[in-house]
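thought: fold this chain, then report.
action: predict
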Amino acid sequence: PKSVESWSSLGASLAEHHRMDEAVAAHLKASKLPDGGKTAQAQRTMRLADGLEKLGEIDRAVKAYRRSLELDPASPAAYFMLGLALGRDQRIEEACDALEGAVALAPTDAQSFRALATGEMMRDRPSVAYDALRRALALRPSWDEAQFELGVALQSLQRPVEAVAAYRAVLRRSPAHFNSHANHGTALRDM
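observation:
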């Protein structure tokens, strides 16, 4: 192939067939071609980063996500994916910084708020996690996993009555949610 479109299509097709090494090579070729302006090049670089991450090459993926942000600093998706990659690499401070960029650029993305909350819990900052989860749930009120994590944050803040209410909200919607059952019992004992 000689065009960006051809390389990108080839990379996508190879990825669909779980041939990630070859997909990454194709996306690398596409990301280096200047066609389509900076935003298009940033998107191609994101596809490369995604492939690298799937191959377990986190450092290279992080570099590619950062390159994508250099090309398009207004991309909430690039900040989000960078944050997830850094989190998987246990670089929690950097991950939270990237996720803060994602929520600043996309304040209606509940998933970014939940990911930020996860990082903040890992940083032992349950009050910041609580705030992020409240924002996520304001955007997606019936999201069981975010509601469960809100209960965990509330327990960490030693607010068992509110934690019980959070777990009960999950259990009303999903009676088989195992972790909510377990944590609900713990929160009840803490009251």
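thought: worth noting. The two ends are 65 Å apart (CA to CA).
final: tokens above.
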